[in-house]
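Dear support,

We are seeing what looks like truncated structure output for some complexes. This example has two components. We would appreciate it if you could run it in full and send us the complete token output so we can diff it against ours.
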Amino acid sequence: MNRLHPRSAAVRIARAALQGGFFGFFGGSLGTGMFDLPWFGVPALAALGAVIFSGYALARYLRFRYELDGDTLTVESGVFARQSRQIPLGRVQNLDVEQNILNRLLGLAIVRFETAGGSATEATLDAVDEAEVKRLRNYVRTHDRDEAADTEAATSKAVSETATSARSAHADLPGATGPSPTQAGDTQAGTDRGPSVSTSNTDSGGQPDESLLFAFDQRELLTYALVSVRPAAPVLTLATLPLGMDIVWAVLRFNATLVGASLSGPVIQWLLGSPETSRLAVFAALSIAQFLLLALVVSMALTVIEYYGFRLTQADDDLRYERGLLRRYSGNIPLEKVQSVTIRENVLMRRFGYATLAVETAGYSGGNQQSTQGVAVPLAPREEVYELARDIEPFGDLDFERSPKRARRRYLARFSLAAAGLTAVAYAVDSLVLETGYWWLAALLFLPVVPAAHLRWRHRGFDLDESVLATRSGFWRRTTRIVPYYRLQTVFVTRSPFQRRRDLATVGADTASSSSLLGGIARVYDIDEGTATELRDSLRERLTAHIASRRRGESAAGEAASRELASDEPADSDAAGGEAVSDERD
Amino acid sequence: MESLHPRVRLLWVLSTVIQASVLGVIAYLVDRFAVALPQWAIVGGWVVLVLLGIAHAVAAHRIWRFDLQDDALFLLRGVVTRTDTSVPYVRVQHVDTTRGPIERAVGLASVVVYTAGTRGADITIPGLRPERATELRERLRDLANESEATDAV
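Here is the complete output from our reference environment:
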């Protein structure tokens, strides 16, 4: 059994001592104040707190042990309530590595093992050194191959053989499910490279078996930061403004003088003293523009920090990413665990022919889900993105079928209702509170209704490709979702009363995914009722057919393999809690 | 297509009555300790909720259908937004039968089918006679197993 790195223990203990010390200090101060403790109560309690907390941290460190043996990761932890958990490596969906600044200085990293199911990360090693990270990563990636070669693990041999044949069977699959010379070639090459992978365990320098798929240079990173506007940035900016109130007032004052206001006191006085409308309008426009500019800068800074040094590489049938300026993130995504592929393009990106690629596995869970996790390529020319997407999940040229025209009328009606509602609210507010008489300005909202309805309709569609279902939706941020038939879970058709009036329906195709925010569901919006039922039936048929053909492909490699893979769909087992076996004792 | 046991309406109405009563108690407490609420509003609200519940239960029972088709469990439900759901047997993770306290009181049971998806990861078929629920659970289990076995060859 291995322990975490001693340096991480030192950090933890130091931090715990500090916390305990503070705790004791506050407790002591409170005690001397309220219960007349003698003066030395404060340092004594602080010291006691530090000792207790750091002792607990030390005990936790000593109790936390992990081991990679055969095809299982075993983690034992807990000081009072002891826990021992076993995770079959074949079930690991992703392996993520995080390094914050302190850890980077110390040469440490936090490793997280994600499996499907469960609401939290299944195993977190906080922290190990970089050599160990490399070892873990390579072990997980190659455990089946190494295992097969490993003769001494007699007990686990049967299991490992199953795993190996399953993996090699999978290498043929892309060919079976759809035509993709690149993919077949890549995986084939990956399998051939098998031996070199084992040697790279010891290689601490570059990793010869990795091929670079995508990397950012400085300029591309800045472009990406510029075009990927974060909706959260204005909120964040607004929230941090009070910290620099002096500067805000100075800027506002400058703006006021710029519009020609004669200031005798603070800006607020000028604002409250009912200034001329035209001056106020220019002042407001100027200030808002400055705020938006600031928000843009914040948004860009956040993106640069997050994506600095982004690299996506492929090693065997694993994708590997690396990113981050202050905190470094890196991780492995096994290609065979990919559930669906998503291509996103916002308006700006579409204009310049760029796109974002994201892959979803069943592993990313709510706990450490970040807005951008699972992003495989943050920004690349659209063709490259599609090429890579086809490498991951083979599909042909997508030819999207649009919803019937009456769907557009539905959007028109919906947007008109929204505009009418807002106008009514504006009228009510104006006639009751403001009394400016300008409430009719809200009626201008009716102007964008027609183009908005058209754009929404235009950007929605679906395509039944040979081996994937592709759906598309969204104007501001168009999302194209690609779901292989054999990954489908449930298929559902919904019809709201408004849809029933126009004989429309929405078809949803669910995949296994723990992210409820992005959702594993590919939706085909507002198609004809008849088309919807047809679509549902053909999705069901294709699911059955594709699973069958995958199984046939595998049965060539041995029946055991098919059984293994059958249960290998991350889907299976998770809900049943079979991903990680853990047992708890008191 | 099989519909639910008619007594499921009673089950639904009973649970609405309980929910409405809980709300009524809360309203009573608010009235007593915080803001004064008119008596008729509390009683009226309770009556309206229960009437809506009854209407919903009747409509829901009329619409609810399920069917064990060749490759998938098929359900049709929804009073306002009508949804049909297909759960392929291959995707069934496990199947439960459950009996809550109200269900036991009216002598019914439900079957819950679990998949690994995001939405509809657990699909409930309510309003079954207990024997039928057990039978359905076993049938679904067999179908889930079979769909794997036949495909694997």
